[in-house]
Each structure stands twice: as structure tokens, then as C-alpha cells.
Write a structure and sequence with these properties.
The complex is a heterotrimer of chains A (709), B (328) and C (262).
Chain A: H1 17-40, H2 42-45, H3 55-67, H4 76-102, H5 115-146, H6 162-192, H7 205-213, H8 218-242, H9 250-259, H10 296-304, H11 310-314, H12 316-319, H13 326-340, H14 360-364, H15 371-375, H16 383-395, H17 401-413, H18 431-436, E1 440-441, E2 450-452, H19 456-460, H20 465-477, E3 482-484, H21 494-498, H22 502-519, E4 523-526, H23 529-538, E5 545-547, H24 548-557, E6 576-580, H25 593-600, E7 606-608, H26 637-647, E8 652-655, H27 658-670, E9 678-681, H28 682-689
Parallel strand pairs in A: 1-3, 2-3, 2-4, 4-5, 6-7, 6-8, 8-9
Chain B: E1 4-7, E2 10-11, E3 14-15, H1 18-29, E4 36-41, H2 43-52, E5 59-64, H3 73-83, E6 89-93, H4 96-108, E7 112-117, E8 119-124, E9 127-134, E10 139-146, E11 151-155, E12 171-174, H5 176-179, E13 186-192, E14 206-210, H6 220-230, E15 233-236, H7 238-242, E16 263-267, H8 273-276, E17 284-289, H9 296-299, E18 302-305, H10 308-323
Helix pairs in contact in B: 3-4, 6-10
Chain C: E1 2-6, E2 9-11, E3 34-36, H1 38-54, E4 57-63, H2 68-78, E5 82-86, H3 96-107, E6 114-118, H4 128-136, E7 140-150, E8 153-159, E9 165-170, E10 174-178, H5 190-195, E11 202-204, H6 206-209, E12 223-229, E13 238-239, H7 244-257
Parallel strand pairs in C: 1-4, 1-6, 4-5, 5-11, 6-10, 7-10
Antiparallel strand pairs in C: 2-3, 7-8, 8-9
Classes of the chains: A mainly alpha (709), B alpha/beta (328), C alpha/beta (262).
């Protein structure tokens, strides 16, 4: 690319142009560095967060999620737009730098981009600029005319963000126009002077501009050229320095938020990364109470949110009208950071966040389903932050009364219902059941190689006990040498931890870990996805754990588990089933196919998929302690889910989690859909249909455990 | 045999039902006893109360004092201490007044105190044999009370059925001058009425009453649907109000409303005394509870062991058919 | 203000099944879990809130064996300033009057402007607060469900029938018995308890307090529980054993027959 023509032709500059451009460069870069350094101030004051391990894996994720924009196509239209814009930016980067430098060094060309390569590059980027420009227009129309719901800002969160968004779109469009005009005016000028000029890409924006200005007097053309260069530079630096003041900062921070993103799913951060468990007692404060209690990565997350609203749109709490929307959690935190760590002025003292920035109900409302994290294109994390905020509230004794009772019961009795320990295995002792299936209690006298970890709800809840019995029957039929811990088992503590009671969780974890080790089992199986996730990710030093659906799928594939036809059961004849992915089996542990494979092994079983399935599954309402919490909401998550099932054409829901079962059964009643919708657990369905010589006669009344007939 | 006194609670000139119950309790202590009634207060209301007092009391001691225009237990205690002979047995209803008055009274009289008594098995030597409950009514206990220096006994409302009495003289004795001036370091200011709710449960013939067994706020709708179909009102026990699932105005019980329906459906209610105390007039009581050992089944007329959350929708459906209302 | 709360360690009814033991003379105590009496916990929370408003200290006292330390630590973790365990073998078997006598001796070793108890505990007697007040000759109010301090005067409301509230003004020092639901007690977690694990708890015996032993202990008790029993069920309810549908039908018949429908 040849530089602009001599500036002698330009007469109305007070300062020789070159110096102006240079000054702008210096000013722009200096401002940017200053602004970013002010933005970085809270990070060293925040808590530590070890994100520097596994650089290759992290780079791989940068390629997948940053360069590859992997999450964006989940929203097809916006995703495509953004992909184009992002690709455009990447491609245009070198061109933009060239135009910037040309203002100071008129013959500058990017190394490697002179000659033929340069020409090809210019052609490509002519189109890139055009595409970006068009995308800006489309995006603006989307914002102003179509107004997608997820961009809306409810009144309690302040003014809308549309004006700012459109302003930025305008600026980027202006950048494209300036760049294109620069190329167009130069080309036109050279052509007028009979000099060799690059052909601009046909029908691109630069090309069209060249058509428009081609016949203007030369002086005007040079004026336009310098003007375009100046506008380009000013706009470029304005954008550069403006971005850190809003959501566009994600342009700079996204690379880092993705590089430093969490590698493992289903895990929780410890109370403090730099404080081992043995020294936790010495901490003065647990959890996040002030802004600086967050880790530096969390603060980076607040900067990196692009305000796209995908998280909030998929958040079940938000959908039912609870006071929580993940997007605004971040927006509010970012606004707090901007206010208390301003670019101009001193950092203010930190104040408690709960009650000022966040409300208590907002933080207790989260079911930790993970839909937000699944959706976010910038890999912003939410669950760790919510848990940390809860830890802070627990530390201050600020816990809703509805949660205090089950927490106390968990402490005294090892289950949230307050039921006595020795009755934990009573589910296996009902007379009918005992005749057909013996369940070993691994109390030292008995041993087995597999532990069936039942957990509290399946042990004590009248309805869920049938899941326990179905699971035991299946394991027995499959010839597994299994046993249960019985009274020695305590609650897995999965929700105890996620509700912020870390010490109680550790007590439960240690107790269970000891019991598991003492039993000598080599593997663990459970029908409770929360227990599954806890044993897999929260516990250490325990044998490998599987969910029952994984076992079933494997056995079915191996031919060890065969099924009678679905319509052998009279009441199943007109059933159209849909599988509801439990959050802690599906999204958090990515077990989507095994349960489906099992269902599809049952001959004649009609199955449809809900629109929101797999990693887009819609939380049933939450498990563990969430069953005790009384949220302020407009409707129940379960009710919305049941309606989704009906919309998909199903009249029966299959799920693989006792908490989903509770919530969906309840919801069927509340929604008034008894008789039109039923729900059954995977284990119960398998138990009903598995071919089993030694099993009790299936035509008799077994526990069908289906609701609503 | 020590003299038996009964403290008479009255409001707006009308004697409370507990008066007859105290009389019945006195007879259980000593079948031949003719207890003395004590009424405190002042003015026409005291007179009206005295004259509405049924027969059965040998003497009626009247204590009129302007300080006692409102029954302040602190003042009443002072008055009683000045007039009660040593070694007396004093019966008081176990309500918010009796809880306030009696423990301190027993100390000032240097007498024993037995609280919330629901059964009396007579006298054995110096001891009165009583029956109480503990652990929220889950177990009963036989209790021995040493009455050699007298006793103050709080009687559980509704535990002793009023008897037909042999009329007694009912001599009115004015004890006001013996009492003298009363001063207390606790002064009554006023009474703030409970917020009137949208529904007055005291006016309904049929109540669908829910307890802890309803499990969560959203399930209250199940009871409301049933109530709507049957033309009833939904009431509740204390835990439901404490959990903020229903307004206080819906609470039936000793600290809530007193109701007199014809039929009372107790759904998921265990049957604690404080709740039952709010049900008067012996309605037909139908109890639905998951726990076959729930105390409510002792007092109900008809009982069903079932899961409330399953039974109510079924009952509602049947009720619609029953009333000829089209299902929604 | 120096506030004293009298607390008691009781079997938590929501986490226990209270049943008679095999001998039939006591409840089965083997698997009971204990905690602080619910109303006493509300009283401690109320005391803490008053202290946080007007300054002072909150002391929690219990009469128990060494197990009593458990609940004292919980209340310390909740925020109480001091805790005291009053333990002496000679206290065993005391009735309500005996307990109040011991508490009176404890109170007179200090200077408390306000003494709180819970309305009642697991035996439902609701007596210690009123007895203590009479022994100390302090004014008393029971069933208190709100407390306000205005210009050095204490205003309390009492819970009376119909959900109404009786407003009283009461002089200090006084004794109040606190009803559940007066406030929302803060949560005390395991961490809180561990943090106060090494706070010293004063343990006092009869001789430390100068208790009048004539009113204390089994021999002095004027009211004694003889046994626990479950009354032979009288007629009780007529239980319906049909299907859910049949039961529902029958209920409706009865409701109509007994005048429940308009």
C-alpha cells in the first residue's frame, strides 16, 4: 500500500499533519494504557485464583471459544452476525494498523503485505470492511426496531442500554467508512493523476465510495484522504479508550477471560485458593462480602461481559420471575467496579455488597443449574460467585429461616428432614421388597465391590424410596455385588456446599469418605445426580462413581439388559415419553446420551425431544436445600417445564433425578395437568420393562410410581 | 382439705367458658368441694360478670378497683396475695392471662405450681395427682403436686367438661377494701387488634384447615380450590402463619382465632393443644394426616391416613361432581 | 444494658421421634439430639438486637451438666458476650421453683437490667420466668412478641387471643418471657461454633452462688413427674380405609350431613 500523497497540498492545518497524527498516536496509546492500568487496579487487591496451569489446554480453548467463536452459533442470527464482525475485525487488524501508521510514515506498508500478498489482503479486507459495515447496520436495526427481548433492561436495573449500543455500532460503522473512504479517495486520486492504483474489490464499500468521489477535484480528494485518515485515527483511538468504560471492553478482555476460564465442570472453588483446609479456621471471614473478596478472575469476568443477555434468557430463575438474572449480577458488579475504582479519581473504600448491590433473595434464588455458564460466549463464570456470596451470608448468619431448619437437621441428623439415622435404610425393608431383593448393608460384617450411594431424599422420602427399590432391583438383576452404607451414610452435602455452608459440607464429606473407605468398595453407583456430582467433583479419595444411567446404557449395549416391549404395560400404551435432562447429570456432567440410549432400547417406546433439551435443558426447580427455600416467584420452574413437555407432544416425562421427580410431580398438580401428564424415573421405567426371570410377576401391582395415571 | 378458689376470667361483662371448666376441675380435686369464685375488675362490667356467673360457687369474692379496669396480671396478683388465705388451692385457666399470673402468684403465696393440667386423679395424702403433657403433646405424664402449702393450678381450657352443678349459695363478698391500693411496675397501654384479613374464618360453617403437612406455600392453593368448591374458608394452624404461608387472621388456636364451625377439616394438622383450643362448639372433625399416630386422630370424629397433597385434589374433583360444578 | 438470657438444652422435637421406652416409664432417650430450646433461641436473638441498638452485653446462662456447654457455645457463636454454666449435682431433680431459685442466686451475683426467658420449653410449663420475677420482685410480662426501648422506657407487646397484641409499658429491671416468632434468629453454622470453641465458659456450683438449698433438688421439689405414658386411645376417630376415591366420597357425604355445606 502506498502512502498518501504529499501533505504540502494541505494548507489549512495549523500544525504540520504528520505531527498531529503522531501526537494523536501518543495521546491515544497513553490514554489507553492509563485507562487499562486503572481498570487493573482492583485485580491485585482481589483474592488469588490459580489459572496459570495447563497452558496448552488453555490455548486450545482460546482457539475454540475465542477464535472459533464456538458458543456464538447457539443463537443463529446474532451468532452469525457476531462471527462476521469478529472475523472482519481480525482480518482488518493489520489494515487498520497500517492506516494508522501511514499518518506518520506515508510510505508505510505492513511487513509481508507488500506486493501481490498485499493486494490480495486489500481485496479481502475491502469486503471485510463492507461486511462489518453491513453488520453494523443490521445490528442497529435489530436493536432499534426488533428489540430482542434479552436486551431489555427491567426498570429496577436502570436505563436501557440501547443508546450506548447503537452509539458504538455507529462508531464502528464510522471506522469502516473512514477506512473505506481513505482507500477510495487515494485510489481515485491516483487514477486522476494517471498513476497506478489498486483496484478496489468490486461492489465493496471502498469501491462504491470510489465511484462516488471519483470525479471530485484532486484537492478535494486529498482533503478527503487526509480527513479520512484523521477520522479513522480519532475514531480508532476513541473506541480504544471508550471500550474500557462499557461492555465493549470485552473486545480486549475476552481473550483473557477465555484463556483463564475454568477448565473443569461441576467443581467449586475452595473458600480461598491460597488457604488450605487445615488453616480455614484462622480466616476472619468466609466468602464474598466486599468487592475485593472476589478473585481477580471474577473481576475480569465483570469487565468481560458483553451484555448479550443470553445467560439471563436461559436462566430458569429469571424465567419464573425470581429477582435473579445473571446478566445483571455482572452488570451491577461492573458498575460497582467502575464507580469504586474509577479511571479519574481515587479508589473508594469497599462496602458490603449484599443489601447494596445485590439483594439476599437474588443470591439465594440460584439453583446452580449452570445454564448461564453454558450459554456465555465469554465463558463468564457464575456459580462460584453465587456460592462465594452465599458463603459470606452464612458467615454473617444471614440465612432465611426456611433454610435454617434443614441445615440444623443436616448437622444433627445427617439429613435435611431431621429423621433419625437408623431409619435411613428402612426403604429397603418393606415386606414386599425384602422378599424379592436383599440389600446388603456394608457395616463391616458384609462387603461388596460396589456401593449404591442412596443419599437422603431417596432414603427418607416416601415417594422417592421407590427409586431406591427400583435401583436395587436392577442392580440385583444385573448380578452386581453391591451394598449400601445404611445408617452410616449421611447426606452427600452437595447442596450444603452450594448454599455456602462449607464447614458443614466438609463434616459430611469427611464422614462419608471414611465410611466409604471403610466399606472397601471399588466403585460407586448412584441414582441421584447431585450425589453423583458431589462424589465425582467435591469428594476426594473415593472410588470412581457412575450414575445408574451410565451403568444401564453399558449393560444394554452389552446385551445384558433386555427389555419387554413398552406396550406390554397396559397403562403405557398411549404414552409419548420425553426425557428431561437433570442439570447435574446433563449439563454439569454431560451425560446426555446414556439415558436416551437406555430408553431407546425399550422396544416400541415412543420418545420425543423437548426443544430445550441436553445442554439447554430447563431446570426443574432445583434439588437438596433448594426444596426448602421459599422464593418470590411468579410461577414454578417445574410448571414451565411440564408445559414444555406438553408442547413437545409428550404426555409422560422420564427423568433420572429424584429432585426432578419431586418438582415435576408437584408441578403437574399445580398446573392442573393430572391425567394429561405423568412422570416416571428412568430406574422405575427400566424396572418395569426389564426382562427378568427371577423378578416378581410384572402383571401384578408393582410400584408403578407414576403420577396422574 | 384446703379451700379451693377459682379465678374467673371475664370480658365485657361476660364470663369466659373457663369458669365452668374450673368448677369441673375443682370437683375432680374434691367431689364435695364448693369452690369460691374470685372476680376482679371494676364498674358495671364487673357487676354484669358477677351476675352472669353460673351457680356452683359457694362464695363469690368481688374485688373492685379502678386499677383493675383492664385485667393486668401484675395487679391482679397483688390483689390475690392480699386476700387469699394461706394454703389455698387456686385454679386459673391456662390462657395468656393465667400464664402471666400464676407462676409469680405461686411464689408469692409460697405454694406449688402445676401448669397446663389436663387431668386430675384426686388427692393422696398431701399430694394432688395430676396429668400433664410434654413434648408438644406427644407423651403424657402423671405428676404429683405437694399441696401442703397450697397450690396454684393452671387448667388447660377445654380439658374439663362443665358439669351440671348442684346449685350453691353464691354469697357475694366484697373484698375490695382488703385489697387496698394497687401499684404495678407494668402498665397496660392499649390493645392493638389483629389486622382484619379478607376472610373472617369465625363466620364459616365449614373450614378447610391446613397445618404443616401442606409443606409449602404453593400448596395452599390446593386447599383454596377445595374451599372454593365447597363454599368454605381456609384456616390454618400456627406453623403455617410462622412460615408466612397464610395471614395471621386465618390462624385457629389459642393465640389466633376461636372458631365454631359445624364441620372442621383438619388437613395435615398434628393436633397440638394450642390449635385445638381455638375450636369450640364441638364441630364434626375430619382429620387427614400422613402420620397414623398423629394426636389429631384422638380427637377427630373421622380420620383418613393419606398424603394430603394427593388427597386434596381428589377431594376437590369429587366435590365438583358432588356440587354439580363443571371441572375446570 | 446488661441483658441476661436463661436458656435450656432440650430434645429438639423436629429432629426427634418422642416415644416411650420399653419399660414404659420414660421416653426413649438413646437417640435423641439436643439443641437450645427454640423460644430461648428467639430470646437470645432479641437480646442481641437490643444490645446492638443500645449497647451493653448479653449473657446466656443455663443450668445443666457439662452437656449444657454445647448450647452455650452455640449462643456465643450467635453473638452473646458471655456464657455461664451452672452445674451442681445437688440441683438434679429440681422443679420449676428450684430452677428459679438457682437462677435468682445467679442474677444476684450480677447486675442485669433485663432478663429474658423463652415462653416455654419441652415440658410446656411456661413457669420459670414468672417465678424468677416474683422471687426477684421484678415486674414480669409473658408471651412477649415485640420489645421497643423508648427514652429509657421499655414497651412490650404480649400475644393474646385472636392475634391481638396487648401493649404494656414496663419498668426496668424486669423479666420477660419471649414468644417464638418475635424475630428471625440469625444462622449459626459450624464455622461459628468452631470459632468460639476455645472461649472460656464460666462454670459455677451451688457454693459459688450462695443458693438457698432448701428449695432446690429432688427432695425440695413440690411438683414431680411420676412417669411418662401414652394414654390408652379412647374411641378416637373412626378411620376410613377405603380407596382414595371412596374416602373422598364419604367425606363429602359427611360434610353435607353435618351441616357443612350452605
Amino acid at each position: 500500500m502506498v502512502g498518501i500523497y504529499s501533505l504540502q497540498h494541505v494548507v489549512d492545518w495549523l500544525v504540520p499533519g504528520r505531527e498531529l497524527f503522531l501526537a494523536l498516536h501518543v495521546l491515544g496509546v497513553a490514554c489507553f494504557i492509563y485507562i487499562v492500568s486503572k481498570r487493573l487496579v482492583p485485580l491485585p487487591r482481589a483474592q488469588s485464583d490459580p489459572r496459570f496451569d495447563q497452558p496448552l489446554v488453555r490455548m486450545g480453548r482460546v482457539f475454540k471459544f475465542w477464535l472459533g467463536q464456538w458458543k456464538h452459533p447457539r443463537y443463529k442470527f446474532a451468532g452469525t452476525l457476531h462471527l462476521l464482525i469478529f472475523a472482519g475485525f481480525i482480518l482488518l487488524a493489520l489494515r487498520a494498523f497500517t492506516v494508522l501508521i501511514v499518518g506518520v510514515s506515508e510510505n508505510f506498508a505492513m511487513p509481508g503485505l507488500s506486493g501481490k500478498t498485499g493486494q490480495i489482503y486489500d481485496l479481502i479486507t475491502d469486503y471485510a470492511a463492507t461486511v462489518v459495515f453491513l453488520c453494523m447496520a443490521v445490528a442497529a436495526v435489530r436493536r432499534l426496531v426488533f428489540k430482542p427481548a434479552r436486551y431489555a433492561v427491567p426498570a429496577r436495573y436502570g436505563k436501557g442500554h440501547t443508546a450506548d449500543a447503537v452509539f458504538l455500532l455507529g462508531l464502528i460503522a464510522m471506522l469502516m467508512v473512514a477506512d473505506s473512504l481513505f482507500a477510495a479517495s487515494r485510489s481515485a486520486g491516483l487514477v486522476q493523476q494517471g498513476q497506478p492504483a489498486e483496484t478496489l474489490a468490486a461492489f465493496s464499500l471502498p469501491w462504491m465510495l470510489q465511484m462516488a468521489v471519483g470525479s471530485l477535484p484532486l484537492a478535494t480528494l486529498w482533503g478527503l484522504n487526509v480527513g479520512a485518515c484523521l477520522v479513522h485515527e480519532i475514531t480508532f483511538y476513541f473506541l480504544l479508550c471508550y471500550r474500557p468504560f462499557g461492555i465493549q471492553f470485552h473486545v480486549e478482555t475476552s481473550l483473557f477471560s477465555i484463556y483463564f476460564s475454568k477448565l473443569e465442570r461441576g467443581t467449586l472453588k475452595p473458600v480461598r485458593w491460597d488457604v488450605p483446609e487445615e488453616r480455614l479456621d484462622q480466616l476472619k471471614s468466609f466468602g464474598v462480602k466486599t468487592f475485593e473478596d472476589f478473585t481477580w478472575k471474577h473481576i475480569l469476568d465483570f469487565y468481560s461481559c458483553a451484555d448479550c443477555g443470553r445467560c439471563a434468557e436461559n436462566c430458569p430463575s429469571n424465567a419464573v420471575g425470581r429477582p435473579l438474572a445473571p446478566r445483571f449480577l455482572t452488570v451491577k458488579a461492573r458498575d460497582y467496579a467502575f464507580k469504586h475504582y474509577p479511571v479519574i479519581g481515587k479508589a473508594n473504600n469497599s462496602k458490603p455488597l449484599i443489601g447494596t448491590v445485590f439483594s439476599e433473595d437474588e443470591i439465594w434464588s440460584c439453583t446452580t443449574c449452570g445454564a448461564c455458564e453454558e450459554e456465555c460466549p465469554l465463558l463468564v463464570e457464575y456459580i462460584d460467585k453465587i456460592v462465594d456470596l452465599r458463603r459470606g451470608m452464612i458467615d454473617d448468619g444471614n440465612v432465611p429461616q426456611s433454610l435454617q431448619k434443614p441445615l440444623k437437621a443436616l448437622e444433627s441428623r445427617g439429613n435435611p428432614y431431621g429423621k433419625i439415622e437408623k431409619k435411613r435404610a428402612d426403604w429397603a425393608k418393606t415386606p414386599d421388597f425384602q422378599q424379592s431383593t436383599k440389600v446388603k448393608v456394608l457395616d463391616g460384617k458384609n462387603a461388596a465391590d460396589t456401593l449404591y450411594f442412596v443419599d437422603s431424599i431417596t432414603s427418607y422420602d416416601d415417594r422417592m424410596q421407590s427409586i431406591g427399590r427400583a435401583t436395587a432391583r436392577i442392580l440385583s438383576h444385573l448380578g452386581k455385588n453391591f451394598g449400601i452404607l445404611g445408617a452410616a451414610e449421611k447426606d452427600s452435602g452437595h447442596e450444603v456446599r452450594r448454599f455456602g455452608e462449607e464447614m458443614l459440607f466438609m463434616a459430611l464429606r469427611d464422614h462419608n469418605t471414611e465410611a466409604i473407605k471403610a466399606s472397601g468398595v471399588q466403585r460407586i453407583v448412584t441414582a441421584d445426580p447431585h450425589a453423583f456430582n458431589a462424589l465425582k467433583h467435591d469428594y476426594e479419595d473415593v472410588p470412581p462413581v457412575e450414575h445408574i444411567s451410565q451403568v444401564l446404557a453399558r449393560e444394554a449395549r452389552a446385551g445384558n439388559l433386555r427389555f419387554n416391549a413398552a406396550d406390554n404395560w397396559l397403562e403405557n400404551r398411549d404414552r409419548v415419553y420425553t426425557y428431561h435432562d437433570p442439570c447435574y447429570l446433563g449439563r454439569h456432567n454431560q451425560v446426555y446420551d446414556d439415558p436416551r440410549d437406555v430408553l431407546d432400547s425399550i422396544p416400541g417406546l415412543n420418545r420425543v425431544e423437548m426443544q430445550r433439551s441436553r445442554d439447554r435443558s430447563f431446570c426443574c426447580g432445583g434439588g437438596g436445600l433448594m426444596l426448602f427455600y421459599e422464593p418470590k416467584e411468579e410461577q414454578r420452574m417445574g410448571v414451565m417445564r411440564v408445559r414444555m413437555a406438553a408442547e413437545a407432544g409428550a404426555n409422560a416425562i422420564v427423568t433420572a433425578c429424584p429432585f426432578c421427580m419431586v418438582n415435576i410431580e408437584d408441578a403437574i398438580k399445580v398446573a392442573g395437568m393430572e391425567g394429561k401428564m405423568s412422570v416416571i424415573d428412568l430406574t422405575e421405567l427400566v424396572d418395569q420393562h426389564m426382562v427378568c426371570e427371577g423378578c416378581p410377576d410384572r402383571t401384578q401391582k408393582l410400584e408403578t410410581a407414576t403420577v396422574g395415571g | 382439705m384446703a379451700r379451693i378458689f377459682a379465678y374467673i376470667v371475664h370480658r365485657s361483662g361476660v364470663v369466659d367458658d373457663s369458669a365452668a371448666e374450673l368448677l369441673a376441675a375443682a370437683k375432680k380435686i374434691d367431689a364435695t368441694a364448693v369452690p369460691t369464685a374470685i372476680l376482679t375488675g371494676c364498674g358495671p362490667e364487673l357487676e354484669a360478670a358477677r351476675s352472669s356467673l353460673g351457680s356452683g360457687f359457694g362464695e363469690i369474692w368481688k374485688v373492685a378497683n379502678t386499677a383493675l379496669v383492664y385485667p393486668n396480671a401484675e395487679l391482679a396478683r397483688q390483689a390475690l396475695v392480699r386476700i387469699l388465705p394461706p394454703g389455698s388451692i387456686v385454679l386459673v385457666p391456662h390462657d395468656h392471662f393465667g400464664i402471666d399470673l400464676s407462676p409469680g402468684l405461686s411464689i408469692k403465696l409460697n405454694s406449688a405450681f402445676a401448669s397446663d393440667v389436663l387431668g386430675i386423679d384426686g388427692i393422696e395424702g398431701n399430694f394432688l395427682k395430676l396429668v400433664r403433657q410434654e413434648f408438644g403433646g406427644q407423651v403424657s405424664a402423671h405428676v404429683r403436686c405437694d399441696i401442703s402449702s397450697g397450690a396454684v393450678i393452671n387448667i388447660r381450657p377445654g380439658a374439663f367438661k362443665p358439669q351440671v352443678n348442684v346449685p350453691a349459695e353464691g354469697v357475694v363478698i366484697d373484698k375490695s377494701s382488703e385489697v387496698g391500693d394497687l401499684t404495678a411496675r407494668r402498665r397496660y397501654l392499649d390493645t392493638i387488634a389483629a389486622e382484619a384479613g379478607d376472610v373472617d374464618i369465625t363466620k364459616h360453617n365449614l373450614l378447610v384447615s391446613i397445618g404443616r403437612g401442606i409443606q409449602e406455600k404453593d400448596n395452599v392453593a390446593l386447599a383454596e380450590e377445595l374451599a372454593e368448591v365447597l363454599g368454605a374458608a381456609v384456616s390454618c394452624s400456627r406453623p403455617v402463619v410462622d412460615a408466612k404461608w397464610m395471614e395471621k387472621s386465618r390462624q385457629v388456636g389459642s393465640s389466633g382465632k376461636t372458631v365454631k364451625p359445624k364441620v372442621y377439616l383438619a388437613c395435615g394438622i398434628s393436633g397440638a393443644f394450642q390449635h385445638l383450643a381455638g375450636i369450640k362448639g364441638s364441630p364434626f372433625l375430619i382429620a387427614i394426616n400422613k402420620n397414623p399416630k398423629a394426636p389429631i386422630f384422638q380427637v377427630a370424629d373421622v380420620g383418613i391416613v393419606d398424603d394430603l397433597l394427593e388427597f386434596l385434589p381428589e377431594l376437590t374433583n369429587k366435590a365438583r361432581e358432588f356440587r354439580g360444578v363443571a371441572a375446570k | 444494658m446488661e441483658i441476661l438470657v436463661c436458656a435450656r438444652r432440650v430434645p429438639d422435637t423436629s429432629e426427634n421421634e418422642i416415644e416411650l421406652n420399653t419399660d414404659g416409664n420414660d421416653i426413649e432417650r438413646e437417640e435423641l439430639v439436643y439443641s437450645v430450646n427454640e423460644a430461648d433461641n428467639y430470646a437470645v436473638e432479641e437480646a442481641l438486637q437490643i444490645r446492638d441498638r443500645v449497647g451493653g452485653n448479653v449473657t446466656v446462662v443455663t443450668i445443666d451438666g457439662e452437656d449444657g456447654e454445647e448450647i452455650l457455645r452455640r449462643e456465643l457463636a450467635m453473638g452473646a458476650n458471655h456464657a455461664a454454666l451452672v452445674a451442681d449435682d445437688s440441683f438434679k431433680g429440681s422443679d420449676g421453683r428450684g430452677i428459679a431459685t438457682i437462677l435468682k442466686a445467679f442474677v444476684q451475683k450480677g447486675h442485669y437490667g433485663l432478663i429474658l426467658t423463652g415462653v416455654q420449653a419441652d415440658d410446656g410449663a411456661a413457669q420459670v420466668g414468672g417465678m424468677l420475677a416474683a422471687m426477684l420482685d421484678y415486674p414480669f410480662a409473658s408471651l412477649v412478641n415485640s420489645i421497643t426501648l423508648e427514652d429509657g422506657k421499655l414497651k412490650v407487646s404480649r400475644e393474646i387471643e385472636g392475634g391481638n397484641r396487648e401493649m404494656n409499658e414496663i419498668d426496668l429491671p424486669c423479666v420477660l418471657s419471649i414468644q417464638t416468632g418475635i424475630n428471625e434468629p440469625r444462622y449459626v453454622g459450624m464455622r461459628g461454633i468452631r470459632q468460639v470453641a476455645s472461649v472460656p465458659i464460666a462454670t459455677l456450683a451451688a457454693s459459688d452462688l450462695g443458693v438457698d438449698m432448701s428449695a432446690v433438688g429432688e427432695a425440695a421439689a413440690r411438683v414431680k413427674r411420676v412417669d411418662y405414658f401414652v394414654p390408652a386411645s379412647g374411641k378416637g376417630a373412626e378411620m376410613l380405609h377405603g380407596s382414595r376415591e371412596e374416602n373422598a366420597d364419604r367425606i363429602l357425604e359427611l360434610v353435607a350431613a353435618k351441616g357443612g355445606l350452605k
